[in-house]
Specification:
The structure holds two protein chains of two kinds. Chain A has two domains: about 5-230, Rossmann fold (3-Layer(aba) Sandwich), CATH 3.40.50; about 235-375, OB fold (Dihydrolipoamide Acetyltransferase, E2P), CATH 2.40.50. In chain A, about 25% of the residues lie in helices and about 35% in strands. Chain A has helices spanning about 40-50, 90-100, 105-120, 135-150, 165-180, 195-200, 220-225, 230-235, 365-375, and strands at about 5-15, 15-25, 30-35, 55-60, 65, 75-80, 155-160, 185-190, 205-210, 210-215, 240-250, 255-260, 260-265, 280, 285-290, 300-305, 310-320, 320-325, 340-345, 350, 360. In chain A, a hairpin with a 5-residue loop joins strand 20 and strand 21 (about 360). The longest helix of chain A has 17 residues, at about 165-180. Chain B is an all-alpha fold. Chain B has two domains: about 1-60; about 65-235, MetI-like (MetI-like fold). Helix content of chain B is about 75%, strand content about 0%. In chain B, helix 7 (about 140-165) crosses helix 9, helix 8 crosses helix 9 and helix 9 packs antiparallel against helix 12 (about 240-265). The longest helix of chain B has about 35 residues, at about 1-35. The chains are: A alpha+beta, B mainly alpha. The interface of A and B includes residues 79, 85 and 98 of A.
């Protein structure tokens, strides 16, 4: 059993608060990704958990123990470093055996564990080599095998894939995910790559400026960003944000949303929006594109068309705003042509322009809920 | 046309390499064959460049001279003491300089360098007086202490730069795998630093083995080999000097020969 709990953790470097009051609970055997731009404090938070940094304030619990003042070796953790940190003066075998030897395991037990870890990562034939005779991807495998060999209850990974080339990263991502599912370890995984986070984590903790700004499962975080930062950071392209006003249309619950490029009818509950300066947030794939005007559509002009194979990405000028819109790969609206956009009301996320925080109207639906039903 | 030019460049490089090698090896060679020649051969002129009259005659004369064997032993002792003390103090100090940010780290480093700015001649008299007052004059410990003082600053700087070149993440990885702070150092950082530490050891050894001024100044009866030779130089015959020269020269070469595999970082490339 190894659940992890941060309570009010702070870590300063001089006057800079790298981790600025983090509370986080991770369940036993859960896979949580710490996601954020560089400098957001995600690695520092991980290092606080590993015991490589001392926290300035707050407590860190691993399992049922208060680990705040324990040295790394007493925390029952294993860690994979961004640089892999494979010991250059030892062969791969000795690298993987290192942790087990420190635990004073029997020689036969060490040998068996080293070989089974190596075979899980397909590096059996590399056991006699030194680190400098390995490629980046192989070193990465050694680092993971070394961390896994100790059978620690908590596995920490600090951007383990970021030094691999794109193709290898894709391959390793899937392999790592499969591998980690077979382990009984609680895993904390740090990355700045939102695709990695979305594809691997049970839950994602999005960090910004030393704080966790949103914690949720990948689809929640993608569909319902807690603020404009999360919406802009997660997803490729990022969520579109348009300045908007909402006015009642004088007929009960309905309302009209006014953008700089036009206006359209809103259905559902909008009462929560009153009294806010609003930003309308919408994902590129939640915007429908029509070639002729109709009720409820907003006019725009195509500026750039980027065919991406799986879909085509449009940059559309709409009044004073510029939007990213994705359309089917067989549709090629020409640049400078007029298009009419349908902003799916249920997929609109309202944000407060001043605080950047999401405003919940109660009528949002998750695109993924419908997706789950249809698959 | 690139190929001939490349060949000319290579040729020049070889010529230069040979010239440098001859420049360094020739005196070593001449001293060595003279040290192992008969008495007459040493005085022979023109000199025979091949070792034709090999014998231990010169060497025996040198070794049987008054005080030579004793001073040789003392030199060995001084060297051992100096190296042990230098690496024992200098390696941790270099590690601290490389790993930790502490107040005064920069002034400390500057102070280390500036110790080399004072020529021994300037501090010779005060040093001798201090040694007399403390009562460590004319002892090998006193000489070793002086040699540690000369070589420690550079040992610290060399090892500091070696440790700075070893990623701290390696030690952190060791700590997450069950090492304490110290065992992470001894199992990971230290083995990786060995080439640099070996280089520092050679520097210390060559310095202390050949150091003559402080040794002559601070000792009177318990002289090290260079001090002993200095005292006997103007009254001794040529074979004595050449044999002595060989003794000053050879150990450094032998040490470098045995330690050289640590000088070139061979991890992984596996020189074998």
């Amino acid at each position: 059993m190894a659940e992890i709990r941060f309570e009010g953790v702070r870590k300063n470097f001089g006057k800079f608060a790298a981790v600025d009051g983090v509370d986080l609970e991770v369940r036993d055997r859960e896979f949580v990704v710490l996601l954020g731009p560089s400098g957001c404090g995600k690695t520092t938070l991980l290092r606080c958990l590993a015991g490589l940094e001392r926290v300035d304030e707050g407590r860190v619990f691993i399992g049922d123990r208060d680990a705040t003042d324990l040295p790394p070796r007493r925390r029952r953790i294993a860690m994979v470093f961004q640089s892999y940190a494979v010991f250059p003066h030892m062969k791969v075998y000795d690298n993987i055996a290192f942790g087990l030897r420190m635990q004073k395991e029997k020689k036969a037990a060490i040998d068996e564990r080293v070989r089974s870890s190596a075979s899980l990562l397909h590096i059996e034939e590399l056991l006699d080599r030194y680190s400098s005779q390995l490629s980046g991807g192989q070193r990465q495998r050694v680092a993971v095998a070394r961390a896994m060999a100790t059978k620690a209850e908590v596995l920490l990974m600090d951007e383990p894939l970021s030094n691999l080339d794109a193709l290898l990263r894709l391959e390793m991502r899937a392999e790592l995910k499969t591998l980690l599912q077979t382990l009984d370890a609680t895993t904390i995984y740090v990355t700045h790559d939102q695709i990695e986070a979305l594809s691997m984590g049970d839950r994602i903790a999005v960090m910004n400026k030393g704080r966790i700004v949103q914690l949720g499962n990948p689809l929640e975080v993608y569909d319902n960003p807690a603020d404009t930062f999360v919406g802009g950071f997660i997803g490729n392209p990022p969520m579109n944000f348009l300045e908007a006003e909402v006015e009642g249309n004088g007929s009960g619950t309905g309302a009209v949303a006014k953008l700089s490029g036009g206006s359209f009818e809103l259905e559902g509950e909008t009462a929560a929006l009153a009294g806010h300066d609003l930003l309308l947030g919408i994902r590129a794939e939640a915007i429908g594109v029509e070639t002729s005007p109709a009720d409820g559509l907003v006019q725009g002009k195509v500026i750039v068309l980027e065919p991406l194979g799986s879909h085509n990405l449009l940059t559309v000028r709409c009044g004073e705003d510029t939007l990213k819109v994705s359309v089917q790969p067989d549709r090629f609206p020409l640049p400078q042509s007029d298009v009419w956009l349908r902003l799916e009301p249920a997929r609109i996320r309202w944000m407060d322009r001043d605080t950047g925080r999401a405003i919940h109207t109660g009528s949002e639906e998750l695109a993924t809920e419908t997706a789950v039903v249809t698959t | 046309m690139a190929l001939p030019r490349l060949r000319v460049g290579r040729l020049l490089a070889y010529v230069a390499a040979i010239a440098i090698a001859v420049f360094i090896i020739a005196p070593i060679y001449l001293i060595t064959i003279s040290a192992f020649s008969t008495f007459d051969a040493v005085y022979e002129y023109p000199k025979n460049l091949l070792p034709s009259h090999l014998s231990m005659e010169s060497m025996n004369i040198f070794l049987d001279s008054d005080g030579v064997k004793d001073s040789l032993w003392r030199s060995v002792w001084v060297a051992v003491l100096t190296i042990v003390a230098c690496l024992g103090i200098g390696t941790p100090a270099g590690y601290a300089l490389a790993r930790f940010t502490f107040k005064g780290a920069n002034p400390f480093q500057l102070a280390l360098v500036s110790t080399r700015a004072f020529p021994l001649i300037i501090i010779a008299i005060p040093l001798a007086v201090t040694y007399l007052q403390v009562g460590i004059d004319d002892t090998i410990y006193g000489v070793a202490l002086a040699h540690v003082a000369f070589t420690l600053p550079l040992t610290v700087l060399v090892t500091a730069s070696v440790f700075a070149g070893i990623s701290y993440e390696l030690e952190e990885a060791a700590m997450t795998l069950g090492c304490s702070r110290f065992s992470a150092f001894s199992r990971v950082a230290l083995p990786l630093a060995l080439p640099g530490v070996a280089a520092a050891a050679i520097f210390v050894f060559v310095t202390t083995w050949n150091e003559v001024f402080a040794a002559a100044l601070l000792t009177f009866t318990n002289r090290t080999l260079p001090a002993q030779m200095l005292a006997a130089l103007d009254t001794s015959p040529l074979p004595y000097r050449l044999a002595g020269g060989f003794f000053l020269l050879a150990p450094a070469l032998v040490v470098i020969f045995f330690i050289r595999k640590y000088l070139v970082s061979t991890w992984g490339r596996v020189a074998r």
